[in-house]
Amino acid sequence: MRGGTSKGAYFLAGDLPAEPALRDELLLRVMGSPDERQIDGLGGAHPLTSKVAVVSRSADPRADVDYLFLQVAVDRAEVSDRQNCGNILAGVGPFAVERGLVAAGEAETAVRIRMVNSGDRATATFPTPGGRVRYTGDAEISGVPGTAAPVVIEFPAGERPLLPTGNVRDMIDGTPVTCVDNGMPTVLMLAADLGVTGYESPRDLEEDLALADRLRAIRLTAGRLMGLGDVSDTTVPKLTLLSPPRAGGAVTTRTFIPVRCHPSIGVLGAAGVAAGLRIEGGVAHKAAVPPADSDRMRIEHPTGFLDIDITLGTTPEGLPTARRTAVVRTARKIFDGTVFPTGGQR
């Protein structure tokens, strides 16, 4: 399925080995990793197309299904569960209906989803006329050709601190940053502070080896400050460079996962950016033009924009916290069938 601006394989949990090591070894063979082309599997030779969703009925009374996201590395024999994916999340509700985990409504269906990776929750609402998932529609999202049915994803207030370091600003290697976690640990920085404009193409930024070295060092330090420990072998926290908007949005972004530049922006990463734009005194205020009379924030990225609704409140201690985050995505079923993994361990 395509979910948002990502693509991945969706599995029922019962169809995969319960033992994580066996499951991960199977998924590497299914996706064709490690191989930079993933020529012998389903992967598309890019982190955004080498993703897996594992879905099951939830034992949590506050959720209908559990969703475990797994990032399958392209060129390494590695499967990581240390992050969520808000794009693949867009396909979880339709998949749950397709597989009979949730009964479809006559007009639309709302599926309550527990994201196993972090314990966070989301509700995905999408059209199901006549009790069947409808994928066609008029919703358009940047980074995806054509239109499709809207999937409205709403995130309740998270239980983790919005500012995981406890500070509105931190200084890392001489660079001011704001560390936020609105569903995805994210480090916000001004592009200008790193010697780039923030309007470069993803390829040009990836080829800037000096920039990659600085980003790598900042991410390792930020991971420790955010309570994530050693993040050298993970893709979180995400790093997002901010610049003034150029197409009527609130801010321009370039996001790295961890040093490859995202061709658009992830849903949960955008949620972090939107929250960061609302935090008084954060680094975003030098680059952003957030709307004063609307909760909707337009986040510009290399291939267009993502609109996200964000409202903040304050904790009893006076710290900012996210009250409501919602976004419109689309999803599409591409193929339904049997995958034949390679026969031996790589």
TrEMBL record:
> Is DNA damage among the key words of this record?
no
Q: Which UniProt keywords apply?
A: Isomerase
Superkingdom classification of source: Bacteria
Q: Does the keyword Transcription apply?
A: no
One Pfam family name is PrpF
InterPro entries with a match to the protein in the record: OMA_tautomer-like, PrpF-like
Give the molecular function GO annotations.
Answer: isomerase activity
Q: Which family does it belong to?
A: Belongs to the PrpF family.
Q: What is this protein called?
A: 4-oxalomesaconate tautomerase
